[in-house]
Amino acid sequence: MTILVTGATGTVGRRVVAELVRRGERVRALTRDPAKADFPAGVETVRGDLTDPGTLIPALEGVTGLHLITFGGAYFEPLTTGREIVALAAKAGVQRITVLNGGGPSPLQEAVEAGDVGWTLVMPVEFMANALEWAEGVRTADSVAEPFVDRLSAMVHEADIGAVAAVALTEDGHAGRTYTLTGPETLTVRDKVRTLAAARGREIALTELSAGQAAERWRGAGMDQETVEFMLDVYGNTPEVGRTVVDTVERVTGRPARTFAQWAAEHADAFRAERADDSGEGDADIVPARV
């Protein structure tokens, strides 16, 4: 059994690869730049691009399981090559497909659902790894600035996403299923900042931005107005699915979903900075965040 993982160098793709390796599977990782892939020993790295289905033909040889993402290209645009990809997968003898899709229906998802290969949709509500967007501000200024700081999220650890995908790619009983994935708790921005402060052993200040300030910041980062309005709506009116805990991870993998505290402990160094004027004394003490 060989399993091809596309988007293999991404936040979730690497976790799918790692979990499949842990399970003893033969893994082939697809990337546009194999020289920079840096996968564990035993992972076969191949060059390919989902926007150019012809490049998948050699990568699909002997493959029985296929993990897909729904976007491609330099700007993460929705893939429009789904029909060709699905046809090539079926011709190659692929028996199981997982699709990672947290952004709603997509052309690739529709093509997979209309095809003849058994599919499973893996739909996380929010990555815990999104908190890394705060890392630079925390390292340099011990601060986070966000709008709607009381908004709720049932964010999920990316390793749990990879684990669910790995099960669906290697075991029967998951075809035709849509798996919404969350962590074990709902958290506000305040909760997340407190958790990160505890993990790194240093206080983090939280500043609440107004909607106007957030919009100005996002436009300054290059977002167009449509995206800015979407962000304001999602943050200000989080959909129920994004703030409701479900037990999918535990049902599929047989173990509880990881907590944000676990994620924060694993990534604490990303939120720490060495300071020339800091003796380090007391750094192990947990200081609550200012909110």
Automatic annotation (TrEMBL):
The protein, known as: Hydroxylase
NAD(P)-binding domain boundaries: 7-102
InterPro entries named among the record's database cross-references: Ergot_Alk_Oxidoreductase, NAD(P)-bd_dom, NAD(P)-bd_dom_sf
